[in-house]
Design brief:
Blueprint: H1 2-11, H2 14-42, H3 45-51, E1 55-56, H4 58-65, H5 72-84, E2 88-92, E3 98-102, H6 115-119, H7 123-129, H8 132-138, H9 141-146, H10 148-151, H11 156-161, H12 165-171, H13 173-197, H14 199-202, E4 208-212, H15 218-226, E5 231-236, H16 238-242, E6 250-254, E7 266-270, H17 278-291, E8 300-305, E9 307-308, H18 317-330, E10 338-339, H19 340-349, E11 354-359, E12 365-370
Parallel strand pairs: 4-5, 4-7, 5-6, 7-8, 9-10
Antiparallel strand pairs: 1-3, 2-3, 8-12, 11-12
Pfam family, one: Dimerisation
Active site: 274 (proton acceptor)
Keywords: Methyltransferase, S-adenosyl-L-methionine, Transferase
């Protein structure tokens, strides 16, 4: 082994060795970008830039976000990371002063300035992803892989925190609010786009739909508004349903998706199955199959989730990395982002006969599953 390593080193030039070192260090520091993004989101820096008419100096940002003047040089370093990575842009004038502007990424973090901004505000999702709770769990990967006691736990989360993710959400009101706000933010951005771009999928949902795990009904309310003739129901745990706001033409039903799903022509599972291992997904899908009529009577399940690699060999690097990074992130609750063959396996084991995947630009696809 030692001689093999030495031979490999001999085949690399000094330039190649230094480039490999640079690549390695870059991989190690990627998490710093996430931390900087989380800090900028918490400080509401995108809002500050937006409320300044789309351009702000460091002094403007410090004044509008409550940052101490003594931290101005540190703020400059934070913004340098985020402009280099494309979250913000920076213009430098002849005097050397820098003005920061929003990019298409940071525009999704603006919650101030009207309904249109709030509708696209994904800052709660940043709070969910860049959060000490899941990140602490990911520090236990080695232990989870190799320690006999830890491998008996079903998730990294249990190794790190001594309870399941869902148990913590149920106990922590703040965590529960963040989770529900995140799901609502995602629905506000994506559902209108998907209803427009995938009308062939949603235009055939029949006269009734049940949104399983639909939380406070944001996605369901958007569907109900687009299709007022459809009877829309949200199924979620009693504590979740109890805190849901009222929506026109949306009925909330407390229950457990593993035990029962109300009858409907269409069952919607939006970002649900990626939270669970295969056996649990099969249990949920079997309940879905019981709830819907036969295919010739219009029965189907709509799954909005990721299909890893669905974009094919021409998939862009950012998209490909986002998929596989999200997959490892989901290991913290023993969830999984599946490739098509993995989806097919659980569909067949749950008793379904056919499915159709509609790739959507972004992080997920739509899968129609038929009994």
């Amino acid at each position: 082994m030692a001689s093999h390593i030495q031979e490999d080193e001999l085949t690399m030039s000094s330039e190649e060795l230094l480039q490999a070192q640079l690549d390695l260090y870059h991989h190690c520091f990627v998490y710093v970008k996430s931390m900087a993004l989380g800090a900028a989101t918490d400080l509401r820096i995108p809002d500050a830039i937006h409320l300044r008419g789309g351009a702000a100096t460091l002094s403007d940002l410090a004044a509008d976000t409550g940052i101490y003047p003594t931290k101005l040089s540190h703020l400059r370093r934070l913004m340098r990371v985020l402009t280099t990575s494309g979250v913000f842009s920076a213009d430098v004038n002849a005097s050397g002063d820098t003005t920061y502007k929003l990019t298409r990424v940071s525009r999704l973090l603006v919650g101030a300035g009207g309904e249109s901004s709030r509708r696209h505000d994904l800052s709660p999702m940043v709070g969910l992803f860049v959060n000490p709770v899941p990140i602490t769990a990911l520090f236990s990967i080695r232990e989870w892989f190799t320690d006999e006691k830890s491998t008996a736990s079903s998730s990294l989360f249990e190794v790190a925190h001594g309870c399941t993710r869902w148990e913590m959400i149920a106990k922590d009101a703040g965590d529960d609010r963040l989770f529900n706000a995140s799901m609502a933010a995602d629905s506000c951005l994506t559902m209108g786009i998907l209803l427009k771009e995938c009308n062939n999928v949603f235009g055939s949902i029949g006269s009734s739909l049940v949104d399983v795990g639909g939380a406070h009904g944001t996605a369901t309310a958007i569907i109900a508004k687009a299709f007022p003739h459809v009877k829309c129901t949200v199924l979620d745990l009693p504590r979740v349903v109890a805190g849901a706001p009222a929506h026109d033409n949306v009925i909330f039903v407390p229950g457990d998706m593993f035990e029962y799903i109300p009858p409907a022509d269409t069952v919607l599972l939006k970002w649900i199955l990626h939270d669970w291992p295969d056996d649990d997904c099969i249990k949920v899908l079997r309940q879905c199959k019981k709830a819907i009529p036969a295919r010739d009577a219009g029965g189907k399940v709509i799954i909005m989730d990721m299909v890893v690699g669905s974009a094919g060999p021409q998939q862009e690097t950012v998209s490909k990395e986002a998929e596989v990074l999200f997959d490892v992130f989901m290991m913290y609750i023993d969830g999984i982002q599946r490739e098509e063959h993995e989806w097919r396996k659980i569909f067949l084991e749950a008793g379904f006969s056919d499915y159709k995947i509609t790739p959507v630009t972004g992080i997920r696809s739509i899968i129609e599953v038929y009994p």
